Amino acid sequence: MAEKAKGKMEQAKGKAKEVAGKAAGNERMKAEGKTDQVKGKTREVADKGKEQARGVKDSLRDRRQP
């Protein structure tokens, strides 16, 4: 769950950086902001995959028990 929150924060930071770069006419900052957003989304999706894998593992474990 913490990874999901970190991902959301990274996305928000990236969006702010992108907007600031756009306002300042700084293409590098704008690009860094977009990169941060992608990193955050990747982290969030990876965490979601881990949660789903845990759910499958738990459901399989529950089925084996009599």
Total beta strands = 0
Shape: rod-shaped
Helical content band? over 70%
Low-confidence region ranges: none
Rg = 18 Å
Oligomer: single chain
As a percent range, the share of strand residues is under 5%
User: N-to-C terminal Cα separation, in Å?
Assistant: 31 Å
Order of helices and strands: HH
Largest sheet: none
Helix-strand category: mainly alpha
Q: Given the structure, what is the number of helices?
A: 2
The pLDDT mean sits at 89
Give me some keywords for this one.
mainly alpha, 66 residues
Q: How is this structure best summarized?
A:
This protein has about 70 residues and is an all-alpha fold. About 90% of the residues lie in helices and about 0% in strands. It has helices spanning about 1-25, 25-65.
